[in-house]
């Protein structure tokens, strides 16, 4: 078997068996490296060499976690929650409950979309908004798998389709890597090529919300098993609201100007410090609590980069694509399907569509040209293959983020309540609709 397949399968099986994702990635990388012809020492060296690439992401999420918890201490989230609570009366009137459910789902859906394009803060809003409303979700008996599906859709579909915020970064990576592979493209063509694959994601969202997870699910009302509750909250004053809004704007501006989530979070934290919205004596505990809350995501991102380094060192991705294409001969449909599946395996392993595109574009472009695909079809093929797995990977921040918010009370399993549902509802339709797009665009 190909080393990529072995590495990813080992990682996925261990994850499904509830082995910690960081350890699953490490063991999967070792299995892939050894089966790919590397010695144990070479595999370990390649893995550790790749860890550094994830350090920036890990620090970014730690800083964003600290910023999010700092904002939560101002009492702002409680104001938002209070508005929702007004819709839920003590008698639990069905109409009001349904309205409250719809409002919560729509608010999280909108915020997730905005976090990619309009207000590019990515998953930083999740620890800010989700933990305070968990008791409301419990009262309304909303299945948290539904919320995970909504959040993951909002964290993936917008950047795939729209060239704004993180979407602009994704589209630029796609265009740049295709040009380096010998096929310059017009970035304006990317949304056209990706419209049908994103329609597949939307179909998966509809199924998750209205069919799979529409039934009530009971959760215990318990104190959150996390340091997010360690420091006391206070009622937000007018000053706190103004300062918090300024801090959010400053963080957004700094991030856009510096192209760094670290600088953005730092700017927001400093505003809260300077203007007193975050008490100096509480600051260290608050920031430490936020960093601890996001630390798991950071370690997974670091480990995923080590995993990717080993996979690339084996050279197995090239052979996987070539062998898959050779099996299907001149059959364009089967060749396209094979390349999509390869993209799925690669992204499932490393957890990032942004990192997958550079790995597969150099192989997919010449291979697709050889099969006679059009430019739009190749854009759809590489864009979909890169995005595949982001929604259902144990190592993806698109799944880690929702889990970080929904599991603060220990009742939401990362693999079975986030990864498996999002894999089923998003990766399967994305393969189907991506393949249809490639064949339709020719």
TrEMBL record:
Residues 150-435 form the Na+/H+ antiporter NhaC-like C-terminal domain. The keyword ATP-binding does not apply. Keywords: Cell membrane, Membrane, Transmembrane, Transmembrane helix. The chain crosses the membrane at residues 7-31, 51-71, 99-115, 121-138, 150-174, 194-213, 238-256, 262-281, 293-314, 334-364, 371-389, 423-441. The keyword Transmembrane applies. Residues 2-87 form the Putative Na+/H+ antiporter N-terminal domain. It is a multi-pass membrane protein. InterPro entries: AA_Transporter-Related, Na/H_Antiport_NhaC-like_C, Na_H_antiport_N. It is found in: Cell membrane. GO terms for cellular component: plasma membrane. Signal peptide: none annotated. It comes from the Bacteria. Its main location: membrane. This is Sodium:proton antiporter. It comes from Planococcus rifietoensis.
């Amino acid at each position: 078997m190909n080393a990529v397949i072995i590495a990813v399968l080992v990682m996925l099986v261990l994850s499904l068996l509830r082995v910690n994702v960081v350890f699953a990635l490490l063991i999967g990388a070792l299995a892939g490296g050894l089966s790919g012809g590397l010695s144990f020492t070479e595999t370990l060296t390649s893995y550790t060499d790749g860890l550094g690439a994830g350090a920036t992401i890990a620090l970014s999420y730690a800083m964003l976690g600290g910023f999010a918890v700092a904002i939560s201490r101002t009492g702002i989230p409680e104001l938002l929650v209070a508005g929702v609570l007004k819709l839920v009366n003590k008698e639990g009137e069905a109409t009001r409950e349904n309205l409250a459910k719809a409002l919560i789902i729509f608010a999280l859906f909108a915020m997730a979309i905005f976090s990619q394009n309009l207000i590019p803060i990515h998953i930083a809003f999740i620890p800010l908004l989700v933990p305070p409303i968990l008791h409301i979700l419990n009262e309304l008996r909303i299945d948290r798998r539904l919320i995970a599906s909504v959040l993951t859709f909002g964290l993936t579909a917008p950047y795939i389709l729209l060239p704004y915020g993180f979407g602009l970064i994704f589209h630029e990576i796609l265009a740049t890597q295709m040009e380096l592979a010998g096929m310059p493209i017009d970035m304006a063509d990317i949304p056209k090529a990706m419209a049908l694959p994103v329609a597949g994601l939307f179909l998966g969202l509809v199924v998750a919300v209205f069919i799979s997870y529409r039934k009530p699910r009971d959760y215990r009302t318990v104190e959150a098993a996390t340091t997010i509750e360690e420091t006391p909250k206070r009622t937000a004053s007018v000053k706190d609201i103004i300062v918090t809004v300024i801090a959010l704007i400053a963080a957004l501006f700094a991030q856009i100007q510096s192209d760094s989530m670290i600088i953005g979070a730092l700017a927001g934290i400093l505003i809260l410090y300077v203007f007193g919205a975050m008490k100096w004596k509480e600051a260290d505990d608050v920031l430490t609590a936020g960093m601890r809350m996001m630390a798991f995501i950071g370690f997974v991102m670091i480990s995923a980069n080590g995993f990717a380094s080993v996979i690339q060192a084996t050279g197995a991705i090239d052979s996987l694509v070539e062998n898959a294409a050779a099996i299907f001969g001149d059959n364009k449909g089967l060749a396209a399907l094979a390349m999509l599946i390869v993209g799925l395996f690669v992204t499932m392993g490393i957890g990032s569509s942004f990192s997958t595109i550079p790995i597969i574009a150099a192989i997919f472009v010449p291979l697709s040209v050889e099969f006679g695909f059009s430019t739009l079809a190749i854009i759809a093929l590489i864009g979909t293959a890169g995005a595949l797995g982001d929604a259902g990977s144990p190592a993806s921040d698109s799944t880690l983020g929702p889990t970080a918010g929904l599991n603060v009370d220990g009742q939401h399993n990362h693999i079975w309540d986030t990864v498996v549902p999002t894999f089923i509802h998003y990766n399967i339709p994305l393969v189907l609709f991506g393949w249809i797009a490639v064949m339709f665009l020719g």
